[in-house]
Write a structure and sequence with these properties.
The chain contains 14 helices and 12 strands. With 436 residues, it is α/β, with parallel strands linked by helices. Helix 2 runs parallel beside helix 3 and helix 13 packs across helix 14. The structure holds flavin mononucleotide.
């Protein structure tokens, strides 16, 4: 369905929302976003989160390059309370591309140096930043040398484009060890929290739904076997790295057949995600970043857009319906688990109105934090503008053109081709010139 953002005024947006029969919250007062957040074991300067966004720009050994450093320093100077670092691989063979960040004992100092600079920049912006590292294994979407080398928990005919390697239990145990080791390095490097990435089709979310995995302690019909990898790894990190907060970016529904949080038709069913969040809570997890869908299968779910990738057809829903699905899903979990702080996603489609919607979500108790993905590439200083003027500048926001996704799909460094044109605009031009 065609759904470009054409709302010049707040009333234009609200009228469209009504026409679609949606109930999008909206507040003229954005100050709820600027309130500090306090828990006994952590506190955050405000409710604005830079969401994890892979930049495909690391050095060959996985350490941050000048371009990665530039991205994080821009985020830090921009005033977000939480900087949630992108997916960082725990093993070479689980990298999504040859330039995915990858943390290991020979390069963890480079992360310490970066964090020091990030903290300095945040402090200059008046923020004491909460730094989260997203640890991952790319599973089905591993491409350590630039060509697909899928490593999966179980087959899924809907997703498999080639015969993948099915990871053995022993291999999974070794991968779990790497998550624990990477968490120790992350703690030493100055991160406040470690995210066990369980979303968007990568290995951990896949394990949660690996019903067809045979004779394994990590899969099959038994739900405790499917939950084992995430829960036991979280417990080990909690016990072996006591200074670090453990969190997860969790898909509450994959919205495809055979995925997590779905019924037999692939429609969302929160029965198992609710049990999982309960079990995470009983293990002391108090922060969850909520998402849904897969960028490879149903990208409009996790990142509602104006333009799809070239060659992809438009989804049969309006992007505002995608925004609303994420707000409602996050709210459902936030209301069930009021003591767990939930981070909401998929706000970038809302442009300069995203702070108004996010502030209303916070006031209604529908989430504790509001995350910005693509908009952080485009407009990392939006938080400071909110602090200083109470408004976001429509000329600086993300336009959800999918340019950043086009770049990384072609294994180019990811960033905003429109608002950070000098670097990423010329990258995108090269792709277009090559007919991509
Ligand atoms: C280029 C690109 C890279 C991304 N990388 C990650 C990632 O590393 N980890 C993750 O959990 N999500 C990743 N995402 C998803 C975003 O974090 C976010 O959920 C999504 O863009 C929707 O939020 P938005 O509407 O604010 O952009 C990525 C999205 C894009 C477009």
């Amino acid at each position: 369905m065609q759904g470009r953002f054409r709302y010049k005024t707040k009333d234009d947006l609200i009228n469209k929302v009504k026409e679609l029969g949606l109930d999008l919250p909206f507040s003229d007062d954005i100050t709820p976003l600027l309130q500090p957040f306090k828990y006994p074991d952590f506190s955050v300067s405000n409710r604005l989160v830079v969401q994890p966004m892979e930049g495909y720009d690391s050095e060959n050994d996985g350490s941050p390059s000048d371009l990665s450093r530039r991205r994080y320093l821009r985020y830090a100077s921009g005033g977000s309370g939480v900087i949630w670092f992108e997916a960082v691989s725990v093993v070479w063979e689980g990298r999504s591309n040859p330039h995915q960040l990858w943390i290991h004992k020979n390069n963890s100092d480079s992360y310490s140096w970066l964090n020091e600079e990030v903290r300095n920049n945040s402090h200059k912006a008046g923020i004491d930043p909460f730094l989260v590292i997203q640890l991952t294994h790319s599973g089905r979407y591993s491409k350590p040398e630039g060509v697909a080398k899928p490593q999966v928990a179980a087959l899924n005919p809907l997703l498999d484009k080639m015969v993948p390697h099915i990871l053995t239990d022993d291999e999974l145990k070794r991968i779990a060890d790497r998550f624990v080791e990477a968490s120790k390095l992350a703690y030493k490097a100055g991160f406040n929290a470690v995210d066990l990435k369980a979303c968007h089709g990568y290995l951990i979310i896949e394990l949660l739904s690996a019903r067809t995995r045979k004779e394994s302690i990590f899969g099959g019909e038994d739900i405790s076997a499917r939950f084992r990898f995430l829960l036991e790894t979280a417990e080990r990190i909690r016990d072996e790295v006591p200074g670090i907060i453990v969190t997860t970016r969790l898909n509450i529904s994959d919205l495809y057949k055979g995925g997590f949080g779905v019924d037999e038709n692939g429609k969302s069913d929160f029965t198992e995600p609710l049990l999982l969040v309960e079990q995470l809570k009983s293990r002391g997890i108090r922060l969850i970043n909520i998402s849904m869908g897969s960028p490879y299968f149903n990208p409009h779910v996790s990142r509602p857009y104006d333009n799809p990738l070239p060659g992809q057809k438009l989804p049969d829903e309006h992007p505002l319906e995608g925004v609303m699905r994420m707000i409602n899903g996050t709210s459902f979990f936030q209301k069930k688990f009021p003591e767990t702080a939930m981070v909401g996603s998929a706000y970038s489609f809302l442009r300069h109105y995203s702070p108004n919607v996010g502030a209303a979500v916070i006031s209604n108790g529908d989430a504790a934090f509001i995350g910005f993905g693509r908009n952080s590439f485009a407009y990392p200083s939006m938080p400071l503008d909110l602090i200083n003027s109470g408004k976001a500048d429509p000329k600086k926001t993300c336009i959800t053109c999918s340019g950043c996704t086009r770049l990384i799909r072609d294994l180019r460094p990811g960033g905003c081709a429109i608002r950070d044109r000098e670097i990423y605009g010329s990258e995108l031009k090269k792709l277009t010139a090559n007919g991509k």
